[in-house]
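To the wet lab folks,

You asked to see what we're planning to order before we commit. Fair enough. Below is the target structure as tokens, and below that is the sequence we designed to fit it. If anything looks off to you, flag it before the synthesis order goes out.
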């Protein structure tokens, strides 16, 4: 049943309040195993965040002057932003290349990307020693325009706005704002183009942050091409996340997905698998080329060299082969396996740069190991994002079809466009 189609248009403040009160009610059972397990973690995480904001980083983290980058930067920010890369890739394919094949998953992908930037990139706020200075890139007296982090901060902010604009037609459809929906839909292509430009810059910009730590990052990982590697890896990371998240969502929200999109999902996964295989091959080829050019063969015989080969072969070449095999033999299980291995590879790669290969020469007893409170806060952030995603997906047309009035408007628009393009003599002949 298309619930969004039944939603009346909101014309007064009273209608809006009544609608919101109805929508705030739980959709389904409250005491599910997932809710019972995750809610205590979220509440504990919120309490720990409050302690961190009041008492400082040292109260909840094992960070220090020697090891300033922990899992909040290495995992929450760098990994989270890479996983959100599917948004700019799919919007480019759907809205710029006009490939309607992937239209069925684009809204869920954009929503996931938007929430990832709000929650994961928002971990920067927690990682700042003086968190109240978070507004400095926007309102500060000294902006620090020469800083890469200043650039990344503005990219994050502007890209979150772009993603919200891209998703806003779904919000308007949920609320029944027909006129506002027309305006927002007309802004989509512009927001996509702007968002793509921002994504290519800040995906590589995160890698540029590491350029300042040349003497602290292991030579096998450090290169002047880190920004390029971060950008290329965001392609297969984002697409792998779409495969992983889409597989779960199509089971959890199966009752909301219309039969047409449900049947086309297998073909979408095949296409995404091809994209992942191509991006992984390019990434692997660049890594090998750099290794040969750098003549760092002797480092491969060290313990860190072994770990480097594990990352390169086990989490780059292996998922590439899995994707190629899955696409060649139309095996969706293998494609999903490739997506999981690829995602694990991104996690390992980003943590290598920020934690594992960072000051690798320091004895293990003196190295940074995240505290249980850091891990709990990270889990709380991830689970809160899942809760918010579920709340939105259960109410807005993310997986379900748009309301009937949207379809009618699109049909009328296409008819008018065709009449404008077809010569008058052909129209009269019809």
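Sequence we intend to order:
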């Amino acid at each position: 049943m298309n619930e969004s189609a039944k939603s009346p248009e909101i014309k007064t403040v009273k209608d809006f309040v009544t609608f919101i009160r109805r929508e705030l009610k739980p959709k389904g059972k409250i005491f599910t195993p997932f809710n019972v397990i995750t809610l205590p973690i979220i509440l504990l995480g919120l309490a720990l965040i409050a302690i961190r904001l009041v008492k400082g980083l040292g109260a909840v983290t094992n960070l220090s002057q020697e090891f300033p980058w922990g899992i909040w930067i290495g995992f929450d920010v760098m990994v989270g932003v890479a996983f959100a890369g599917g948004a700019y890739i799919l919007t480019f394919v759907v809205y710029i290349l006009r490939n309607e094949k992937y239209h069925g998953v684009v809204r869920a992908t954009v929503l996931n990307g938007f929430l990832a930037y709000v929650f994961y990139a928002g971990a920067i706020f927690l990682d700042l020693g003086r968190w109240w200075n978070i507004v400095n890139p926007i309102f500060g007296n000294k902006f620090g325009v020469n800083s890469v982090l200043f650039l990344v901060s503005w990219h994050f902010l502007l890209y979150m706005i772009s993603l919200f604009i891209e998703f806003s037609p779904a919000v308007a459809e949920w609320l029944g704002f027909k006129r506002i929906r027309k305006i927002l839909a007309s802004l989509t292509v512009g927001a996509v183009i702007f968002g793509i430009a921002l994504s290519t810059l800040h995906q590589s910009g995160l890698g540029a942050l590491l350029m300042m730590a040349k003497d602290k990052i292991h030579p096998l990982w450090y290169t002047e091409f880190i920004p390029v590697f971060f950008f290329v890896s965001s392609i297969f990371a984002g697409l792998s996340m779409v495969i992983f998240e889409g597989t779960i969502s199509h089971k959890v929200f199966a009752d909301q997905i219309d039969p047409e999109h449900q049947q086309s999902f297998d073909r979408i996964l095949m296409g995404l698998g091809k994209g992942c295989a191509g991006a992984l091959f390019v990434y692997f080829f660049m890594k090998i080329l750099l290794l040969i050019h750098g003549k760092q063969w002797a480092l491969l015989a060290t313990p860190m060299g072994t770990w480097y080969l594990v990352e390169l072969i086990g989490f780059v070449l292996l998922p590439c082969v899995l994707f190629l095999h899955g696409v060649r033999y139309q095996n969706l299980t293998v494609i999903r396996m490739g997506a999981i291995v690829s995602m694990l590879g991104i996690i390992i790669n980003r943590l290598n740069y920020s934690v594992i290969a960072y000051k690798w020469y320091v004895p293990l007893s003196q190295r940074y190991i995240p505290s249980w409170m850091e891990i709990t806060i990270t889990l709380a952030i991830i689970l809160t994002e899942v809760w918010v995603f579920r709340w939105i997906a259960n109410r807005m047309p993310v997986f379900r079809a748009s309301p009937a009035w949207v379809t009618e408007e699109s049909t009328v628009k296409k008819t008018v466009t065709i009449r404008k393009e077809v010569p008058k003599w052909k129209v009269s002949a019809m």
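Structural context that might help your review: The longest helix spans residues 259-294. Confidence is low (pLDDT under 50) at residues 1-5.

Thanks,
Computational group
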